[in-house]
UniProtKB/TrEMBL annotation:
<protein>
    <recommendedName>
        <fullName>DUF998 domain-containing protein</fullName>
    </recommendedName>
</protein>
<keyword id="KW-0472">Membrane</keyword>
<feature type="transmembrane region" description="Helical">
    <location>
        <begin position="193"/>
        <end position="213"/>
    </location>
</feature>
<feature type="transmembrane region" description="Helical">
    <location>
        <begin position="164"/>
        <end position="186"/>
    </location>
</feature>
<feature type="region of interest" description="Disordered">
    <location>
        <begin position="1"/>
        <end position="42"/>
    </location>
</feature>
<feature type="transmembrane region" description="Helical">
    <location>
        <begin position="274"/>
        <end position="292"/>
    </location>
</feature>
<feature type="region of interest" description="Disordered">
    <location>
        <begin position="387"/>
        <end position="406"/>
    </location>
</feature>
<feature type="transmembrane region" description="Helical">
    <location>
        <begin position="304"/>
        <end position="323"/>
    </location>
</feature>
<feature type="transmembrane region" description="Helical">
    <location>
        <begin position="357"/>
        <end position="378"/>
    </location>
</feature>
<feature type="compositionally biased region" description="Low complexity">
    <location>
        <begin position="1"/>
        <end position="13"/>
    </location>
</feature>
<feature type="transmembrane region" description="Helical">
    <location>
        <begin position="89"/>
        <end position="110"/>
    </location>
</feature>
<feature type="transmembrane region" description="Helical">
    <location>
        <begin position="330"/>
        <end position="351"/>
    </location>
</feature>
<keyword id="KW-0812">Transmembrane</keyword>
<feature type="transmembrane region" description="Helical">
    <location>
        <begin position="233"/>
        <end position="254"/>
    </location>
</feature>
<feature type="transmembrane region" description="Helical">
    <location>
        <begin position="55"/>
        <end position="74"/>
    </location>
</feature>
<keyword id="KW-1133">Transmembrane helix</keyword>
<feature type="transmembrane region" description="Helical">
    <location>
        <begin position="130"/>
        <end position="152"/>
    </location>
</feature>
Length: 406
């Protein structure tokens, strides 16, 4: 008897090792990855990778900023911070460079098929979106560079540089901010906007505090910063105005994502509309505070401020009621947020443990923490519904790139 020692070959086992991918195939795979990373916007010009465009944009910003800065700074020596300083020129030129860069690349990004709903927004809201986001990115660049050069001025005391060296440093700052803003413009989504809003408001408020002419402003309230007629007051009110515009823009992004989840979860559309209206009101009220200084419009200012808190409390209490299947952990977050605000109010009005400024800090921190977690929750819930249709008990027919606004 002959025993065959051959190992049977399975049907799925290839008779020979697969050939190594060619350079063309590898390059094609890289392009596919790049397209996947940016699938939500229009293909980049000449189908080049995004990183090449970031570097090219940064290079262009460097050259133009260097020429402008050298023209303005040549023939003099400049300190690191203060009037006529390298920091001042860097902040202003970088803000302009950032604004131009964002407008160009954001306009390109919204041409993508997944952004149809943004192109169908009312013209007024689209203008607010462009203006608000452009100015916010420019302001963040200005605040970041101003803070950087203030720190450098403390490290290199009494240092001055000639116009050529100063222009080079200014150009580097513009190149860095332009490089970063390209990625921001191409990846603008709900989560990105919520984080940008939090960073901008925190930076603007901190800048206003540091430049306040009254070092004891905190013994009164935050609104006293906006009542000042100096740079501190201008910064504070500008932060409120842009913050309101960004919240109005964010309302469209967030409720679009919420509408996609609501249709998958078979929630009624009016619930999403209620949330959109609440966010719009919150944004309008915040922007209105920029024009209602507490020293000139005391009662109106307080009414608007209390109305903002009331709208937020209604949203925090309403999300678990309107969307009970959205997320149980987030319902707990809503309850904890409301509890923290109530405890803070008692500590302020009841026992006098907190002053008004401390209560305002607690309230603002609670609002932005809640907002960022809401955005993350809606995004996660929507992705879960899309990837687990069987959990719905039916096959949902929904376009994740739905161009409808609630």
């Amino acid at each position: 008897m002959t025993v065959r020692s051959e190992t049977p070959t399975t049907a799925t086992e290839p008779p020979y090792p697969p050939a190594a991918p060619t350079e063309t195939e590898v390059a094609g795979a890289g392009s596919a990855v790049e397209r996947t990373d940016h699938r939500d916007h229009h293909p980049l010009p000449w189908d080049l990778p995004a990183e090449q465009w970031r570097l090219a944009t940064a290079g262009g910003a460097f050259l133009l900023s260097f020429v402008v800065a050298l023209t303005l700074m040549y023939g003099r020596r400049h300190p690191m911070f203060g009037e006529g300083s390298i920091g001042e020129y860097s902040a202003l030129i970088a803000a302009l460079s950032t604004a131009i860069t964002f407008v160009v690349w954001f306009a390109w990004a919204v041409r993508g098929p997944a952004q149809r709903w943004r192109r169908r927004m009312a013209l007024f809201l689209r203008i607010l979106e462009y203006v608000g986001l452009t100015l916010t990115h420019a302001a963040v660049a200005m605040l970041a560079l101003s803070g950087t050069f203030w720190i450098l001025s403390q490290a290199f005391r009494e240092l001055t540089l000639d116009g050529f060296a100063g222009a080079f440093i200014v150009a580097v700052g513009s190149a860095v901010t332009s490089y970063l803003v390209v990625g921001s413009a191409l990846s603008t989504n709900t989560r990105h906007l919520s984080q940008l809003l939090a960073v901008f408001v925190a930076s603007g408020a901190l800048s206003s505090m540091l430049t306040a002419s009254d070092p004891l402003w905190w013994q009164d309230h935050f609104s006293s910063l906006g009542a000042a007629s100096d740079l501190s007051g201008l910064t504070f009110n500008f932060t409120l105005l842009l913050g309101g515009l960004v919240i109005i823009t964010l309302s469209g992004y967030l409720t679009h994502d919420l509408a996609v989840w609501a249709e998958l979860a078979r929630e009624r559309p009016y619930k999403v509309t209620v949330m959109r209206i609440a966010f719009l009101v919150e944004g309008v009220l915040l922007a209105a505070l920029a024009f209602l200084s507490v020293d000139r419009f005391f009662y109106t200012h307080n009414v608007v401020a209390y109305a903002m808190v009331a709208v937020f409390l209604a949203m925090a209490a309403g999300v678990p009621v309107l969307f009970p299947t959205l997320s149980r952990p987030f319902s707990l977050v809503c309850a904890l947020t409301l509890t923290a605000l109530v405890v803070g109010l008692v500590a302020y009005l009841g026992v006098g443990y907190l002053n008004l400024t401390a209560f305002e800090v607690l309230t603002v921190a609670g609002i932005f923490t809640w907002l960022i977690l809401l955005v993350a929750t809606v995004e996660s819930a929507s992705e879960h519904r899309r990837s687990h249709p069987a959990a719905l008990g039916h096959d949902p027919v929904v376009d994740p790139d739905d161009d409808r606004l609630p």
